[in-house]
Every structure is written in structure tokens, then in C-alpha cells.
Amino acid sequence: MKFPTNFGLVMVTLGLMLISSPLAECGAFGLKVNLRNPFSKQNSKPTKTSETPAQSPAAGLAPAPSPFSSYPWTPSGSGLVVGFYNDKCDSNVEVIIEFLVEQEFKKDPTILPALLRLQFHDCFVHGCDASILVDGPSTEKTAEANLSVRGYEFIERLKAALESECPGVVSCADIIAVATKVLIKLGGGLDYPVETGRKDGLVSNAADVQLPNPSMTVDEAAAVFAAKNFTLEEMVVLLGYHAVGIAHCNFFQDRLYQGTAQFDSEMDPSLVRQLKQTCPQSPITNNTTPLNQDSTNNNTLNNRFYGELLGNRGLLAVDQALSRDPASSTIVTKLSQNRALFDIRTAQVMIKLQAVEVLIGDQGGIRKTCGNIN
Questions:
Q1: Active-site residue identified among 34, 105, 121, 198
Q2: Is 294 known as a binding-site position?
Q3: Which of 91, 96, 230, 246 would give a disulfide with 234, using CB separation of 3.0 to 4.6 Å?
Q4: Is 74 among the domain residues?
Q5: Are residues 235 and 342 both part of a single domain?
């Protein structure tokens, strides 16, 4: 059963109304609710009811289709599985994460691009093992490419909540993956079946951080992605997550001004004038602007980002190059013209990203706190 988005609020309300009874019926959802633990998996099992469809409070409403059965999901083949924690914790791990992520997203929608970036930066260094979360003077977190990454404190709060429910069971790597999946859904993407079973890494070194450079050519970027077993098309799809988020001036400023090595004479002139106000050549600033310059975008994952690239309105050189290089321009065009294709491919490729070089079984470990290796 798929819980409604306000599931956590419903559970709390029931607890206040029926605190004198540890077990109560919730007819609206057909659930038997354990009020001592609103996230108990007992709450996720529908009870039999004598109501006929005509008598149901929801009669006349077509049931929502399962998002997992409507699209061609393919297992990553990494050893991860959907529902890994189903028999490992009395509480529903993914429901807890979803509830807390939804609350955070309401307060700060920018947590969506923040965790997308954190997930990518983690997976491209030693795989998806939460090594980016480790504290220390020379860990991945301290690498120059990761200095502006954020979301660490939020992941740590999720970890604390799960440790209180089932200590030593849920990995920080899985928390990142599930939280990112929930945020993608909240940001307008598809609700794909997240795979779990990752272990946390035991190594985290700043010197190991080698990530794609925003000034790379398509060929250079494709070589970096190919090293992680991604095709050119999959790289174009992953860079489509730049539909949300911001960029600092230093990542694209040289593209605005003649006489610089990266000056882009083809950039939309109206965008150049606008960006020069945000990023003056002198004095140098650390201002930011949305990666997606589509004025209708509001922190939403959609394919209009590719249309911006086709209109020469891309901020990062590597993004803009996708629409100009013959090897990738056709892919950009197809994605810009087909929202359904964009939704499906971004979900499928995210499943693949979240399975990069994962640690499973006896590999790695489960941290007590995400910032410290046990």
C-alpha cells in the first residue's frame, strides 16, 4: 500500500485523539494503527473491511495507479534490492525517511538540489558509500569540489531518527539514496522503486575526489562518466538534474566577457546582459544564479532545461556544449521535446547512479553516526 503524503500527520493526530488506546482502527485508510509507534509496519497492513466500494468514503474516486508498475524499471544488478529493510526493523524505514524529508522540503525546497549534488559527489568517489559525510581534516568533505556541498546535517538528523527506531541497522548510504528519491518525487519527478542494502564506506580521503569539471568538453566529460559505466546518453540525462539548483559566478563568469579564455560569443545576448549584473567582472563576487534560466521554473524537475540549452541559455560550459556537440545534440533535442521520456530516463539513470560501486554484504559497515567511521 502507498501511504498518503500526510501519513505522518495522520499518525500524530490519531495518537493525540486516541492516546488511551494502544491499538485503534482507522477506517479511512483501512489500517490498524499501533499508536505506541506510528511508524510500525503493522500500520502499513490494510485490515479487512465489510465496506463495499459504494459505501467507502472514497467511493467514486479511481484508485491511483502504482508508480512502480507503470514504467519499465530495471534492477541495477548490483546486489541491492527493493525493500531490503522490510524484515530488519519493526518500524518502516522508508516511511520514516519519507515523512521527515517531506517536512524538510516544506521548510526548505532547496534541499532537493542540495541532496542531488551530495548524492552525485558521493557516488562518483569510491561509489555510493556515504564517504562524503565523514568528518575530518582530510576527508572527502574537505576537498575543494565539496566545499559548497550541503545537506550533511539533514542526513545526520535522519540517521538519528532511524537509530532511535532500529539501532545499527540502516546505513547512511541508504539514507542518502532514499531521501534523494523522495525529493525527486516532491520536485516533480517519478516515484521510482529505490533499491537498498548499501553499506557505509570505511575510507574517505580528499585526495581521491576527482569529479567532472563544469568547463569540460563533451568528450572530456563523457570519458569521466564512461569510467563509471555511463553512456553518453545517460550522462546527458544526469546533467538534466541541473534543472534545479544554483551556480556560483566563478563557475561561468568567464563565458560572459570578451578577452577571457572561455568567452562564449553564442550565448543569448539578453542572458549575457542579465548575468553581467549578477556577476560583474570587477569586483569579483561570489553571487549565485539558477542553473536553469527558464523563468517559469520554480525548483521543479522538468525537461525545459534542455530547451534553455538549445536556446544558448546554459550557464555551465559543459551543459551548453551538450546542445552544440553533434554527438549529444540529438539527445538534448529528444529530451526537450518529450517530458515523459525525460521523467522515465532521469528515474532509470538515477537508479543506476545510486548503485555505482556499492558495498554490500560483509563489505563496509553501518555507522552509528554518519560523520564518523566506527
A1: 121
A2: yes
A3: 230
A4: no
A5: yes
Strand segments, DSSP code E, in 261-313 are: 288-290
Asked whether residue 361 is domain-assigned, the answer is no
Look at the chain and report how many structural domains it folds into.
Answer: 3
Q: Grid cell 574517505 — which residue?
A: 204
Residue 34: inside a domain: yes
192 and 107 share one domain: yes
Residue where the block lists cell 568567464: 254
Copy the grid coordinates of residue 192.
521510482
For the question of residue 121 being annotated catalytic, the response is yes
**CATH code for the domain in which residue 190 is found:** 1.10.520.10
The response to whether 109 counts as a known ligand-binding position is: no
Residue 362 marked as a ligand binder: no
Give per-residue pLDDT as tens, 223-263. Answer: 999 999 999 999 999 999 999 999 999 999 999 999 999 99
How far apart, in whole angstroms, are the C-alpha atoms of residue 369 and residue 163? 9
Is residue 360 included in any domain, yes or no?
no
CA angle 103, 106, 109 (to 5 degrees): 120
Model pLDDT for residues 327-356, shown as the tens digit of each residue: 999 999 999 999 999 999 999 999 999 999
The residue segments making up the domain with residue 233 are 218-353
> Would the annotation count 72 as a binding residue?
no
Strands (E), 38-151: 81-82
Among candidates 305, 292, 312, 369, which has minimal Cα distance to 342? 305
Q: Residue 196 is inside which H or E element, if any?
A: strand 195-196
Q: Note the Cα 256 to chain centre separation in Å.
A: 31
Is 127 flagged in the annotation as binding? yes
Q: Does 122 count as an annotated binding residue?
A: yes
Cell of residue 278, nine digits? 549578477
Among candidate residues 299, 351, 304, the one with its CA nearest the CA of residue 332:
304
| Beta-strand relationship, 246-248 and 288-290 | antiparallel
